[in-house]
Structure prediction request, 194 residues.
Amino acid sequence: MKKVVAILNRHWILLLVFNSLVLAASFGAFSLLKPFWIAKAQLILPETGKLQASLGTLGSLTKGDSELSAKSHPLNMQASILKSDALMRRLLESDPEKTDFQRLVQYKQLFAVSPHQESTTIWLNATGASPELARDRVRALISAYQERLNELRQADGTTRVEFNKKALDRAKQKLDQSQEALAKFQESSGLVNS
Prediction:
């Protein structure tokens, strides 16, 4: 105990200066930093055990055909949609503080999207200068996500219709060519009277 008292007597000025600096830095950081709030939301996505995907001319894929990689896991795909530039641009356009962000990358940092691989949930976090702003950002993210999913579904449906139409046109063209070739063959072989 006498050693501790002796050390304190020798270095009390340094300890006092050090503690004063730590206290001043704490107050300075507290006064300079803006407060922020975090709003959280959880999306529970439906899970189907029946994975089927039509790959067009390549065939089709079912769950038993191959193992899904971590990158192509359905939750990771949904998280990619949530973090996409198209979705974030849409959010930034309607954000009340949009003038504070010169680049989209800065705005994206306000949001955290984390899929939970063991279940079908995706956690969403949004930060804001007020609790209401953070909550509104999470709501806007969910709303924009739903709109983007609908756009992607419509685009997928349109692509499938166009693909099927092209395939039908090719099949019709082949049928016409085959019928023409058959008619020529029948005429040349004398199977049909002219």
Summary: The mean pLDDT is 84. The chain has two domains: 1-33, 36-152. The CA atoms of residues 162 and 168 lie 10 Å apart.
